[in-house]
Amino acid sequence: MTPGLETDDELLILMRSGDEQAFVTLYRRRQAAIYRFALHMSGSATVAEDVTQEVFLALIREECGFDPGRGTLPGYLFGIARKLVLRSLERGRADVPLEIEGEESAWPELAVHDDPLADLTHREGIDALRRAVLALPRRYREVVVLCDLEEVDYADAALVLACPIGTVRSRLHRARALLLEKLHQERNFRPAVGAWKPVRCLT
Amino acid sequence: MEAGKVFDMSCQEFWRTMPELARHPDQSGHLRECSACAALWEKQRALTDGLRTVAKEWSHLQAPQRVEGRLTAAFRSHAGLGEKSRPERLWVPAAAWFAAAAALIALAMFLVSERQPQAPRHAAPRAMELAELQPLRESPGNELGTGEDSPYSGDDFIPLPNAARIAPNEDVNLVRVEVPRSTMIGLGFEVSAERASEPVQAEVVLGIDGLARAVRFLDE
Predict the structure, then answer these.
(1) Using CA atoms, how far apart are residues B22 and B44, in angstroms rounded to an integer?
(2) Taking CB atoms and an 8 Å limit, are A107 and B58 in contact across chains?
(3) What is the pLDDT, as a whole number, of residue A30?
(4) For residue B163, is it within any domain?
(5) What is the pLDDT of residue A89?
(6) Would you say residue B43 lies in a domain?
(7) What pTM did the predictor assign?
(8) Are residues B103 and B147 in the same domain?
(9) pLDDT tens digits, residue range A95-147?
(10) How many domains are there within chain B?
(11) With bands split at pLDDT 50, 70 and 90, how would you rate the model's confidence at B136?
(12) Is there a single domain that holds both residue B142 and residue B51?
């Protein structure tokens, strides 16, 4: 086979038979997404590095028993990474989740205010969106990072998050609504010269 | 048309089943019928485009190179490939440390073992002299080490008691260690009480099995 063209499952079989090149290929193919996920979830490059290392060590040691019948290898790796990140966050208590009542039942209304999304075509708007993603509560941040940033499909995301696919959809919907809210808030806090129109002349 | 009214599907059904709309075109036709959902969908689409831009900007982020190095080493270790693929410069110091540790352990075991009292000597014995003091046993397994045919015969090497003989062509290692001067007492040297705790350098001959066979002290 041509190196690098094997599927993840083929590489895993080769790796488990002691093929170091297969392991390196698999690592290089998947490490960046795992690192980014851990980084965005923890907000710490050190934690992200440790998590990435532990994820692939688990794969080397065959500790968790990946079953191709249950999902894809990336989904499995994200699942391990998520557990490790959560463990790290619990130890460090670095994340204060924002609990929102009735998350699964109530569908938020996406307020139609003046349009902060127009900014998303500009540098400033993208920066604001990036900040908004990082400021999302953990349960919404993870679904946005997985589905929107890393383009994990919903079925895999459901396995990673250990929840039904419907929950993935509802959380994603809610997460996007929160992002819009945050973008709108940030836009309103920004001083906009055009918005300061005199209502009445006092002189 | 107003949002919330039931067309082909309700707005809630639409959003429950179609969050992928931001990526895929509307298959249900609901957006044509519901202007409110169409407006929201436009927002979602813009947001998703923005997220895609963010993802592209973050795409360069990856684990530092050192992680790959550590994992590759762990893989080799796990697969039992370590000694074959590890660079020699890493292996040699490890082997030296192992040999030094083995030599120290052998000397320590020798010191705690029961010894027949011997008359103190003022000078270090030559190997042949020591052979006369401690006659070789009959059992080959218990023979003292440095015979005439050994490359370590002479040169002040003292065969250790109960150590196997060093064969002429045996691959041995010579390890230099530092031990308390009191170690020399066990081999028949005279050591004053004041100097017993001083360190003294010694060279230990290790057999292929890693066990110490003979020793010589460099500054008696």
Answers:
(1) 6
(2) no
(3) 94
(4) yes
(5) 85
(6) yes
(7) 0.55
(8) yes
(9) 444 333 334 433 333 333 455 555 555 677 788 888 899 889 999 999 999 99
(10) 2
(11) very low
(12) no
The residue in chain B having the minimum alpha-carbon distance to the alpha carbon of residue A120 is B50
pLDDT in tens, B80-127: 654 444 444 445 455 666 666 776 776 666 666 655 555 544 444 444
Distance spanning both ends of chain A, measured CA to CA: 83
The nearest CA of chain B is from the CA of A68 a distance in Å of: 21
Residue B68: inside a domain: no
- For the domain made up of A8-92, give the CATH fold: Rna Polymerase Sigma Factor; Chain: A (1.10.1740)
Digit-coded pLDDT (tens) for B144-178:
444 445 555 555 778 877 777 776 666 777 777 77
- Check whether residue B50 and residue B99 sit in a common domain: no
Q: Is the CB of B61 less than 8 angstroms away from the CB of A130?
A: no
What pLDDT, in 10s, does the model give residues A11-64?
A: 988 988 888 999 999 999 999 999 999 999 988 899 999 999 999 999 888 766
Determine, for residues B15 and A173 on separate chains, whether the beta-carbon distance falls below 8 Å. Answer: yes
* Alpha carbons B184 and B120: distance in angstroms, whole number: 11
Q: How far apart are CA B29 and CA B44, in angstroms?
A: 17
Domains of chain A, residue spans:
8-92, 116-190
How far apart are alpha carbons B213 and B162 in whole angstroms?
9
On whether any CB of chain B is under 8 Å from the CB of A162, the answer is no
Instruction: For chain B, report the end-to-end CA distance as a whole number of angstroms.
Output: 105
Q: For residue B30, what are the domain limits?
A: 11-58
Q: Report the chain B residue with the minimal C-alpha distance to residue A55.
A: B71
Mutate to test the interface with A, among B13, B14, B71 (most CBs of A within 10 A): B71
The yes-or-no verdict on residue A191 having pLDDT over 50 is no
Q: Which residues of B touch A172 (CB under 8 A)?
A: 19
User: When comparing pLDDT for A7 and B204, which is higher?
Assistant: A7
Q: Residues of chain B whose C-beta is under 8 A from some C-beta in A?
A: 12, 15-17, 19-20, 22, 39-40, 43-44, 46-55, 57-59, 61-64, 67-68, 70-72, 74-76, 78-81, 85
CATH of range A116-190; options 1.10.1740.10, 3.40.50.10860, 3.40.50.200, 1.10.10.10? 1.10.10.10
The Cα–Cα gap between B139 and B137 comes to 6
Q: Report the candidate in A61, A59, A54, A47 with the shortest Cα–Cα distance to residue A12.
A: A59
**Interface check A179 vs B, CB under 8 A:** yes
Lookup: tokens for B5: 């009214």
Residues of A in contact with B12 (CB under 8 A): 107
Check whether residue B99 and residue B52 sit in a common domain: no
Q: Flag whether B141 is in a domain.
A: yes
Positive or negative, the CA dihedral A69, A72, A77, A78 is negative
Instruction: Say if the ipTM goes beyond 0.85.
Output: no
Contact of A160 with A82, CB cutoff 8 Å? yes
Disruptive mutation site among A52, A104, A123 for chain B (greatest number of B CBs within 10 Å): A52
